[in-house]
Amino acid sequence: MAAISCEIQQPNGPKVSDKSLKEELSTLCMFATVEPIRALEIIIEQGDKAVNNDDLDIGQYTHPVADKWQLIAQWWEGGPDRQWLVKATSPISFMKGDDGSWIIDYQGDGMEYAYYTNLAYKTVAIPIEGGWKLSTTGKIIDTDGYAMDFGTDDNTLITRVEDNGHFKEWYYSLTGPYSLTITKNGEIIDQVSGQDDGKEYSVQFYIDYLHYSVGRFYAIE
After folding, report:
1. For residues 6 and 132, what is the distance between their CA atoms, to the nearest angstrom?
2. How far apart are CA 87 and CA 54, in angstroms?
3. pLDDT by residue (tens digit) across 140-191?
């Protein structure tokens, strides 16, 4: 684990600060709620126009069956002198239910956070006025018996889109609890829970998919 590996102090075992755990928690919350919902809203807005649309810098959409979509996310890496485009190895899947809800699934290496190596989550998104009711269960399997379980059963994501004539800006605010439990060989060694900050943030609608900047986009209190 990123949080564990950087703070192990011998001989007394892992010493993980509350701040580190909350940063980890906020990253995972972005990963499994805010970012995939933005990708979902592009599906809803564009329909089949999203497939093979080179203007969508966040990645490549496919529509394999009637009620199922997939996204291979992409992002830029490097520095000011040299950058290159990187694509995810595993898709994010979106399945629409008969009641209008969506199930969002991912299993892979954590994309931009590739140190996770084995991450899976499932988010159920139920449409409400102005946004979504969300529940998430996720798990990360690490080496040496370590694992992380994370999620929420009651998040509300409020979204809106504004067009300024040059690009569309996606505004969002997230409210509700989120929690993280670290285990080793099935025994709990650390836990943290928090409430999102509830503030409104924004990103450009069609670009910068993998932007997990904890300070800018999301903060666990």
Report:
1. 35
2. 14
3. 888 888 888 999 998 999 999 999 888 888 999 988 898 999 998 999 998 8
